[in-house]
Specification:
alpha+beta, 15% helix, Peptidoglycan-binding LysM, Membrane-bound Lytic Murein Transglycosylase D, Chain A, 6-stranded antiparallel β-barrel, 6-stranded antiparallel barrel, LysM, Thrombin, subunit H, Elongation Factor Tu (Ef-tu), domain 3, 35% strand
Length: 331
């Protein structure tokens, strides 16, 4: 009887061995040695067919402060479902790359039309209070009148950015008013200045301008680049509004966050968009606490205020909504 049991066990083990061997073989990584000009971005595209995979490596290798600068000779383990950077030796860590080893920076463009949140306590410098001949809509080269004058320190030739007031933005979790969403409309230049008023000419318009539009000291609307930058501390926050005002958000959309410079957020920081998964308590019987968060996408901070930031969604795996969380490292 004992002999029969042993034979049955050996037969079962024989049947399992090919599967176990295949699993072990599948887990065995290929090793790639980084060459001059390689980037985490490029390695992710090459081996994972997804250039946006690289933050997974970046966040787990704090010695890499620039995702576009990895060191020739360093090794990468390539698995079917992931990449792992082999930690550098002390000698490699002490060495600095030659200028020729540094790959071209990957950057993101600020076009000047993203808008931002005018945070609580901040006030517009003035507003458009009237138009020439009572026109309802203004465009380039039209005449406008403002409530900015010499009493405000203004003089002829001063330039202001024009914004529309889209209303207050409340935090989706706390209901705190975070500020007012303002969207750029154009620019104007003062021509004739009285004590408490002035005449101006619209020098540029992106959208229709009407009386009541906010005026803020000129903000450059030129196109400029923002390079990626590793967050200096752990960041956690929320998407509190979208530029379009729609609930559903996808790649290419502009959003506003409750993270600003006061909490360590900086231009160029890339964050993951995540969502908590609710536990069905009726079936878990208390055995499960928190489930892994659902990864929805990624975004890059373009500009920061003290408490808020403007960001570009660069990847969306699923539909993103106002109220979804953002973190500097996904779990």
């Amino acid at each position: 009887m004992k002999t029969r049991s042993v034979i049955v066990f050996l037969l079962a083990l024989t049947m399992l061995l090919p599967g176990l061997a295949a699993a072990v073989e599948q887990e065995q990584p290929t090793t790639y040695i980084i060459k001059r000009g390689d980037t985490l971005w490029g390695l992710s595209q090459r081996f994972m067919n997804d250039p946006w995979y690289w933050p997974n490596m970046w966040s787990k290798n704090t010695d890499i402060t620039n995702p576009h600068l990895v060191y020739p000779g360093q090794k990468v383990r390539v698995f079917p479902d992931r990449l792992e950077l082999v930690p550098r030796t002390e000698a490699q860590a002490a060495a600095k790359p030659a200028e020729s080893d540094v790959a071209e920076e990957r950057s993101f463009t600020i076009r000047g039309s993203e808008g931002h949140l005018l945070e609580n306590g901040a006030m517009p410098f003035g507003s458009v209070v009237a138009t020439h001949n009572g026109r309802v809509i203004l465009g380039a080269d039209d005449i406008a009148y403002t409530d900015i004058g010499a009493a405000n320190g203004a003089k002829g030739g001063d330039t202001f950015s024009i914004f529309s007031d889209e209303g207050p933005v409340s935090h989706p979790a706390t209901n705190e008013i975070m500020g007012r969403k303002i969207i750029p409309l154009g620019t104007l230049q003062l021509t004739d200045v009285e004590q408490k008023a002035s005449r101006a000419i619209i020098t540029m318009s992106y959208k229709e301008i009407s009386p009541g539009a906010f005026l803020i000291p000129y903000r450059s609307d030129r196109t400029r680049e923002v390079s990626l930058k590793m967050p200096s501390r752990e960041l956690r926050g929320y998407i509190i509004e979208s530029q379009s005002g729609t609930q559903g958000i996808s790649a290419g959309d502009i959003v506003y966050l409750d993270l600003g410079s006061a909490r360590g957020a900086e231009k160029g920081n890339m964050l993951y968009v995540v969502r908590d998964v609710a536990v069905d308590r009726s079936v878990t019987q208390g055995r499960v606490d928190n489930l892994p968060q659902e990864l929805l996408g990624a975004l890059v901070i373009l500009e920061t205020g003290k408490k808020t930031a403007t960001a570009l969604v660069v990847k969306s795996i699923d539909v993103i909504y106002i109220g979804d969380k953002v973190v500097s490292q996904a779990k």
